[in-house]
Structure formats: structure tokens, C-alpha cells
Amino acid sequence: MYKKFFVLGFVLLQFTFSLITANGNDKQVLISERIYLNTDRKIYVAGENLLFNLYLLDINSNSLANYPSIGYIVVRNKNGDVFGKSQVKIINGKAAGAIHLSDTLQSGYYHVVAYTNFMRNGSPDIFFKSEILIANRFDKDFFGLVSGQNSDSTSSLHATATVSPDIKKINIITDKAAYSKREKASLKINITSPGIKLLDFSVSIVEKNLMEETFAAKASLPKGRDSKGVFFDVSERNENPIHMAEDKYAEIIGRLTDKNSGDPVGYQVLYLSSPDTINNFKYTVTNSRGYFRFPLSDYYNGKDVFIKVKQRDGESLDPKMEIDSKFKVEGSFTFDPLPIDSSVISYLKNSQNIVRIQKSFALIQSAFKPQQMTSSVPLLFRVPDFTVAPADFVELKDFVEIAREILPSVKIRKRDDVYYAEILDWQKRMFMAPKPLIFFDGVLIDDISQIIPYGTKDIKKVDVISSKWIVDHQVLEGVLSVNSHNNLWKNVTLNNNNLRIKAEDYYELPNLFQPNYSIVDVKSREPDFRQLLYWNPNGKASPGNAATFEFFTSDYATSYLIKVTGISDKGEIVEGYSEIEVKDKL
Amino acid sequence: MKDTAKLKLKTSYKTMKTLNIYIFSILVFLSLAANAQDEIHLRTSEIFDAPLIGRNYLPPSVGKGSPYLYDNFLNGYVVFITGDTVRNKLFKYDCLKNDFIWMADGKSMIALDHNLIKSFTLFPREGGERIFEKTTLKLPFIADSLFRYLEVLAKGEIDLYSFHKVEVEAEATTGLSGGLYQLNAYSAKNLYFIQLEDLSVRQVRFSKRSIYEAYPEYKEKIRKIMRANHSGGIRNEYQLTQLVKLINENWKD
Asked: What is the dihedral of CA A525, A530, A536, A542, to 10 degrees?
């Protein structure tokens, strides 16, 4: 009897405990994403392009992520200041890109940091980081980089430059060990490590130097499950918004507060629009803590985006909107700078001269072309109830005349020097409240007064939705969309209910100067002192299917390091190295 | 007396034991259920839905019959021209006005903007699904050139569609107070159409002949498939659908 009561009591206790813990107070989610990034080189001269490829790993499955995502890469100095950034689309766990290193960068060590939006929920410790050295093209000495090590340290560096046991090697075969200038070379990459079924990798052929060799030995695997910062709190206790995994859309997160009191403004409606010849519209509502988020499809890439606070009737909110920056990395990183010896200094000085020559022959592309991506427009409507082209009628001097003469469902009134627009609801046969949504060249403006001065000469088209227009649970008192001939939205000054931001864009890889000397042309007369002979971020190999690449050597006779770095199907880093020589005369 | 009391005690112990087992099981089950985490959405594809856009829906006046495919709102999903899909909402289809209606907030009815819709699917209570596509196919014997939603019954070499036509007639009727007033009478009539490849649409009826004579150039092929597969007569929509599916499956043979 007592045993029965004991068992019953135990179960009751367990049940009660479960209820207490299961009401949202204790929910932890594992951040299973890790990034591994590889750069073409470790030493750059300011003004060059940093080329990279990255892999997004799912540590649960130990393989490349099988969902799309967006990678964020920043180049920052010791103080955490960002001097270069890029965002890339990650498809099948892979992406490649480039960052232009501004000519004005100071000589020093920099960090390349890579992460996804979802990883930002954890500590920056789980972000990928690697160090690079950048030399300013105009520095004459590099005393600031020398960290007091003497040249004896070079031998110890070579001794420690052994490959980590985690890193497996692959077989790299070139058709020759030494080449003459501008000679065609080929290399083949075979998988020799057992158990690898597929290898995705990048190939970089770069002038050999101590830093390349030493960094290679220090490559590390992404942090595992038991590293700190890999879980984050999704319970109600966590007041910060969760950063979503951006598989389908990128997201903008922001916070709305009252500028005067600093208090968060909850349950406020916000609209988002962007300049375009087509109407586009999104809305959201802030949560109780004032946070809001908008999805951004590729439609918005590189565009100006306007976020507007919809003031409630009788409200006089003085809003302040702060947008979360994805390229802001909190905290500083500890640097582990490698000692620089005379060979590295000599390499830097030589590189400065080479980059100077390349710049004068415009061989380095500094402005990248935006990627063209197709995406559907987030339409508010596709076919308006009425559409009018003022040019089809006699010339009308301003929008009041346009509305009066050729827009039957729109009425413009003036009260106390302020204009109001009302749209007829054809369903109810009466004019709606004087606060329709008004777009000017795709941008939501504050009121009709801002476009009154524009007449037939300025306005190309007017579209009207002549009824209450419902978007989910938002009821709009009609829609008026006006398009101008010459992007006149730029002349409109929006009030402080609006915030203008620029959506980031995706860029194509810059044209790499990788000449083909089998064709004799004008280019073949230009000097070619490339230190980076070859870069390919999209290598693929499997057992029995070697990958082959061809390239031409440059006029720069020196030793070159062939670096092959990638990820196997099991999520392991795979690396291989080889060397070739380019000689003046064979 | 003592035996009776003993017996009663034994019985009550047994009952108590059974009761304890039941209570134990229920509590374990409830504790597991309570311990289960709420589903957490951590991807932008899971938290951002395309908006449902349209106007207030004005229902036709009440009358005999119904203008709707189903009088009740049903679970379903809608696919927009952008490719976005919105699921797990309540919808209804007004065959008379050709409006696809969403029940918002449990009381407001919104006629979704058909210019943004590509197709929709309803899940009837009896099971299965009914798929409608927005199309501007030129239907024979139908004079207008408006878009319409056609129910997709079969897809393949031959597509089979059903057009849910509702006709309304005003009937005079006498009210309780003896006054005469007008009442609408809605009568539903399904029309069936097939389209072979990119050829023009043809109307069909519940007969095999109407199918194989729809496209004279394919008449023999269709007849051959019907004969080879011993297809029976057609008396209803289900049999018509099955026949077209059979033709599609055997088309390449």
C-alpha cells in the first residue's frame, strides 16, 4: 500500500516538474552550423582582391548543409573595425566570392571572419576566423609588423610547420616540376585518403613564402558540439530577437522605440517599400519589445528600402528605428601573429612593386558587378481598378487637376493648406477615409501634398485600387500608385516616420587575370608578374575521377606553392600541397 | 460475516490496483506531453508567409440551392503566381462569382485577388483534395473571355477540367406575411473539357464517343487504348476521370 502511494507520489512529482520546465522557461537550441573558409593567399597588398570560397557544414550530419543560406564575410582589424565585407549565397553548402581590399588600408594583420545569420545567435567564438597580412602599397618599411623575433625563429617555424593530424593529404600531380615563363601547365588532383567519396575543394597557386607555409599548418576544424556558445536560449527569458537561418529570404531585424522616452513601441504596424516602376509592399508588426523583422527576397538586392511607421489615429509618436547590422561583429579577437623575418619583408616589398605595375595596367578589377538574380516582385496588386496615363489627355498643371479631370475615383481636398486624398469605394459607393496608401515611384510617401506640384509633364501613370484593400489583417483605405517620368521620388522629403536603408547586394567574382598565351594578341605584350597564377574555388574530385586544371605561368620566375583545400563528404578538411618552379630559362 | 468483509476488502484492493495503474499511465502520458517542446521555427522559410490580399467579399443573396462548391469553409492552400504557397487557412469557392474566399479572423470574408493566384486546393471533409487552376482557356460555347478557375481532374497528355457553372434564376415567392418577393435559385451544372497537348479545348460529356471524337486526328489511337484496356461505360465524373487517366498512362505505348 505504502509502495503504491510512493510510486504515485513520484509520478505526480515528475509530472509537476515537467509542467514547470515545459512552459517556455528552459529551451535551448543547438547552433549546428559551422563555416570553413579558404582564401587564395595569406599576404595581400592593399588594392588587391581577396578571393575566397567557403563551406557551410552541419555538425549534426557532419556534411555540407543541404539547405540554401547566406554567408557573411568581413575583414576587420585588431580593433574590430570592418574594412571589407561581402555576402554570398550558399548553395549546397558552398559559396565563393571576393572582397576588394581598399588601397588605403594600413599595413597590419587583419582577420577574415565568416558566419551565417543563424550563427549570430551564439558567441562569435563559433565564427570562422583566419588571419591575413595586408601591406599598404606605399609603406616603405614594416617595423610595425615585426614582433621582435630574430631570424633564428625561422628554423623553429619550419620545425613547427607540420600538418595537423586532423588534416588529410591528397595527391597533386603536375606535368612538370619546372616551367618556363608563359608556359602552359596542368595539374591533376587525386583522392588518396581512404573513406573519401567526394571532395569539394579550391585550388590556389601562389608565390611561395613563409607565411603561406606556416598558415597551412595551423588550419583548424570548425568547433564541435562541446565548444562554448553553441547553444542559445529560445525561451521567453531571452529578450533579444532570434536570428533566423536565411534559407529562403534574408531578413532585416530592427527595433522601434519612442525617441523621447526610449521605451520600446509594441504592436505598431510598419510598411516597407522600394523605388521601382512596379508597386511593391510589405508590412509587419512590432512585438511587445518593439522588435520587428521583414523578409527580403532577391528583389531588394542592392536597392534602397524605406521603412515607414504607420501612426495610429490621434497618435503623435516620435519614432526611432534601429536596424541590426549583420556585418557588425561584437568583441575583439585575439591575434596570433606570426613572426616576420627578412624573407617576408622582402616578399612584401616585391609584392608592392608588382601590384603597382598591375594597377597601372588595370589588371586588378576593383569594382564588382552585381549579380543578376530573378525574383518575383512582392506586389500589393497586379491589376489596378483604374489606370490612367495623363499624357493621353490635355496637359494638366498639377495633381489636383489630374485628379479632378481624369481620375474619377480620386478626390483631392484642401483643408488648412494641407491636401487630402480620398478614394471612392466602388463596392459601397462612398468615399473612404482620407488616408489611402500612396506610392510615388514605388515608395510609400507620407501624404498627397508631396506630389501635388506634379502635372502631366511629370507623371507617367496613375493606378488606383478603388475599394478597401485587405492585406492579411491590414485594411487599406484604397491605394494610389503614381509613377513619374524621371524618378521624382528622389525629390520627396519624407518625415521622421520613415527610415531609409540600403539592402546589400551580391556580386559576381571579379575577372581574374589568367591569360591564355596560346593565343597571340595585344594582351600578350603586357607585363605579367602574377603572384597568384591560378585560383579555382569550384574543384570536385571523387575516387577514380581526378580533377584536372590548366593554366599559364607568368613572367615572374620564382617558386610557387600549389594549395588544395576542401571538405570531404564526411565534413572533414582535406588539404594537399605541392610546388612548382617558374624559371627564366629551362 | 468475516468472509464477506474479507471478500469486500479483496475486491476493493483489486479495484484500487486497477485504478492506480490507470492513474499512473495517464500521469506518465501527460507528463510526457507536457515535457514536449513547442515547435520552434528558426528558418525564414518557416516564419514568413506571403500575404493574402483582396477585397471584402460580398456574398450573393440567400436563396434556393447554393452558389458555393462547399457551403462550409474548408482547409486548403493557395499558390500564387510568384510561386509562394500559403497553407492551413480556411477557404471557400464561390462558383457563381468565381471568387476564392478566405475566412480571416473567423468572421471577415476576403475575396482574394485572382490576379495574384495561380491555383488553389481544398480538402473536403470526406477526404481527398480538389485542385483548381486559374486559366484563361477559351472554352467552347462559353462566350466570355474572362479568366476562370477550373477544377483539374486529370493531367497528362490529355488534361481534363471541370467547369463548375452556377446559374441563378430569380423566383417569385410568397413570404410569411403574404407579400411577394424575389428569391434566387442557384443551380449548379458541371461542364467538362479536355485539352490534348496545345490543341484547342473541347467539351466532353459522360460518353466515350465524346472523348475520342474530340480530336479526330487522334481518334483511332484513343479508341485503341480504350479497347485494349477494356474501359467500361461512363456515367459520372469519377468514371470520366478514370478513363482520361487510363488514356494518359497508356499514351506512349
From this structure: 100
Q: What is the ipTM of this complex?
A: 0.84
* Segment 248-267 of chain A within 8 Å of chain B by CB: 248-251
Identity of the amino acid at A112 = V
Within 8 A of A377 by CB-CB distance, chain B residues are 82
A386-502 under CATH 2.170.130, yes or no: yes
CATH code assigned to A31-226+330-371+509-583: 2.60.40.1930
Q: What is the pLDDT of residues A374-432, one digit of tens each?
A: 899 999 999 999 999 999 999 999 999 999 999 989 999 999 989 999 999 988 899 99
Q: CA angle, corner A502, sides to A499 and A507, nearest 5?
A: 170
Q: Is the pTM of this model over 0.80?
A: yes
Vertex B86 angle, CA B83 and B91, to 5°: 125
Calculate ∠ Cα A143-A144-A146, nearest 5°: 65
Residue A168 corresponds to which cell in the numbers above?
588529410
Chain B contact residues (CB < 8 Å to A): 16-17, 20, 23-24, 27-28, 30-32, 34-38, 40, 42-45, 47-48, 51-56, 58, 81-84, 104-105, 108, 110, 113, 115-116
**Strand, coil or helix: what is A264?**
strand
Give the residue extent of every domain in chain A.
Answer: 31-226+330-371+509-583, 247-323, 386-502
CA nearest to A336, candidates A222, A223, A218, A228:
A218
- The values of phi and psi at residue A278, to 5°, are -110, 145
